Structures are given as C-alpha cells and as structure tokens.
C-alpha cells in the first residue's frame, strides 16, 4: 500500500518539462525586461551623466578588460549577497549549500504543507455562520475581488486543461449552503485550491529565472556597450560574444548540477499539485453545502498530503537533491571562480590580439 502511494508521486517526464519551460520563460522575460530598462535608461540619460559614465574610445582600447572586470565584480557581488550573512558564521560554501537546501525544502515540502490551510478556511466559514455582521462585512469585501477569482479560474483551467470536463454545477444559492456566507462561490474556492500547491514551485522558478535573466542582461548590455566603445558598431558582436561566454563560464560549472536539483524539487511539487488538483475536480470536492461534507472533503485532501509528505520517494528525491546541491556549492565556491578567471584571461588575450 505504501509503495502504491509513493509511486503516484514519482516524477514524470512532463513534470520536468513543465519546470524547465517555466524557468526558461521567466529567464527570457527577465532578460528582455532588464535589457529594455538598460536601453531606456541609457538613451534618456542626460548628456553630462553619459559623459561622466562612459570612457573614451581611446581609453577603452587600452583598458577593455578592466572595464568588463568592473562590471563582472559588481554583478558577482549582487548575485552572492544572499549568502554573505551566513558566510560570516559558517563559510561561503556551507552558506550557499544551506541557502539552496532551504529553497528546495520550501518548494517540495511547502507545496504539500500549504494544503493544510483548508482547515483555517473552514474554521473561518464556521465563524461567519455564527456572526452575521462579520459575515456581511467579509462578503462585501470579497465581492470586490471577483475579477481576481475569475482570473484564478482561468489560470487553473490553463494549467490543468485535461480536467475541464469535470466542471461542476453550482448550488451556492441554497439557503443551507455554507458558501452563502462568502463573497466567493464554491467554484471560486475550488479554482484557488487547485492551484494552491503551485505557489512554491512557481515562486522558486520565478526567482531563479529572474536572477539568471537579470544577470545575463547586465553582462550582455555592458559587453555590447564596451564593444561599441572599443571598435564602433562592429564591436557589438564582439562584446556580446564576450559577455555570453563569460556568463556561461560563471554559471555552467555549478549550474549544470544546481539547476537539475532545483528542477527535481519543483517537478515533484508540480506532480503533487496535479494529483491534488485532480482529486479536487474529479472528486467534486468543495462543492458540498454542509459543514460535515466539507470536513470530509478536507480530510480527503489531507490524506493525499499526508501520503505525499510521508512517502519514501519524497525522502529519496530530497536526499538526492541535497547531495547534488552540496557538490554544486563546492564547485561554485572552489572551482567556478578559477574557471571564470581563466576564461576571462583567455578572452582578454584573444580580444587584445584581435584589436591590434
């Protein structure tokens, strides 16, 4: 029985594809947005500010590597600031390691733990039924959020297109319905409940994509700017190539291990979310009008959550991710700076010969 429960949470190919696609989307959006901000800020700067910031072409020809180095140092400081505080006490390696462990723990475990919030909602509904004045105020406030509930319903149907056929009929107009005390319907709540576990994996992918895209934009913009200053418009490709090469040299050594570990955590969270959502829709949960029926719906959800959190498969996946993150942290602190330094020295030498 336990093996059967664990097997339903095993990561499928489509779960991993979902994680990779969403991370890629967030990275692209962050890159495009950041580049746009850089370009707008550059072209709308006052002439005096531009003159003060930009170095002359003659200076660029003799100090091109120094200019890029300064940009890289600034970017590196921003990217590693998250672990500086912890590094004061346990060192940078374990600071990076524990920070990433917290991220995958919140992602994988949090996706299940957040479903226990249904208990809080249920108790609040009971409170409304006992206090009409409080119920009236709450309903009026929630009715203002009807566009939000409509948006969540559309998002839920977009994320889970294969469960559209399980749409249910509303009965909230009944005088005995527990939902009559709300400014939202049972259908609204089902939509929110179905996407609730996705909050943590989506946020994890969003934050990592935001960091990756923003830093890439910083590298590319400064690389292109340096290329133009050094060799005119013909230097755009040269500067962009330099930026891309250094960016990947700074990310790939540890990222090739760290990102899969993150994808593992987000994929299993997404897998649980799908099972959780399908149970809500197929089981017609939260359609109940009576307190007793709603209690039973919550119990069914918590049974799934409990099976997920206690599953050996989750423990196995989490253990593998921890090992991967430990290796990635070691590479990031011990090897990546050396590899990136070697690459920038090599690129600087090649560029110097090209410009001569």
Automatic annotation (TrEMBL):
InterPro entries: SpoIIM-like (IPR002798). Keywords: Membrane, Transmembrane, Transmembrane helix. It comes from the Archaea. Pfam families: SpoIIM (PF01944). The chain crosses the membrane at residues 20-44, 93-116, 198-220, 313-333. This is Stage II sporulation protein M. It comes from Methanococcoides vulcani. The lineage of its organism: Archaea, Methanobacteriati, Methanobacteriota, Stenosarchaea group, Methanomicrobia.
